[in-house]
Amino acid sequence: MKRRWAAGAAILLVLVFTGSATAGGWRFSYRLKPGQEWIITHAGQTETNVMGQKQVSRNKTVVGYKVSAGSKKGWVRVTAKILSAAGGMDLKKMTFTGDMHTSGEIRNKKVTGSAAPQMEGMEGMPPEMKAMMEQSYRFMADAWKEMVFWFPEFPEEKLDIGDEFDMARKMAGGGGAMGMNSVRKEIYTLEDVSDGLAYFSVKDRSVSQMQGAMGGKTKTKTAGKGETVFDLQDGMWIEVVSRFKSSTNMGAMAGMPGAGGGNFESLHINKITVEPK
Predict the structure, then answer these.
(1) Core-most of 118, 181, 260, 277, by most CB within 10 Å?
(2) Is-contact 265 247, C-beta < 8 A?
(3) β-strands 262-276, 37-50: how paired?
(4) Between these two residues, 133 and 75, which has the higher pLDDT value?
């Protein structure tokens, strides 16, 4: 009888300790502190097939972040500026601010300043054209704001290997003659944790619709996957790599006979690297 009791107790102990290990996991959070500065680089390559011709474009954007004290416990204030980017506009004129929680939730996202160039002869421009140009730059600022604050929001509960969480992003910009609405969903799955680093796989889908200034409409669908690495000690991502395909339907422009639409597909490869300054 004693031997049976001892054997049963041993089995119970194994089950208890095995269950505790399985129910463990890791709680993820951002460990941003006042005074920190980060440099985040977005590098991308896009391959597009248009009328049987392959076009390749590359872009690189560098964003600087500064962290200051927040108004509540668990929150910090993040100020970001675009340090360099492809294109002819001076994006350094814009400043992005937001309140960020340790979970990654961001509130009060704002952008001040404008990348609109100082154009000579603006005074004599028709009011409708001037309003359209100003609207396009506001629309662009909204798009950059979402790119600057790209950080995924973590769940409150711990994650174990194989667990997943999703991140839904919605964007509405512009208005009037121009505007864009997009919905994007990312699913993060924890694949491994070793040496203080957490490795996630990511699935990504999105749908966006854009209303052009001339009445034209476009609809884009994307689907892809990627991998990310998160530093548990620093509480920040190290690297995010994504590969996805997009299909765009170009609607005809209103009031312009012969200006028909079309379809084209693209392959995108994006990489985000994060470094402390």
Answers:
(1) 181
(2) yes
(3) antiparallel
(4) 75
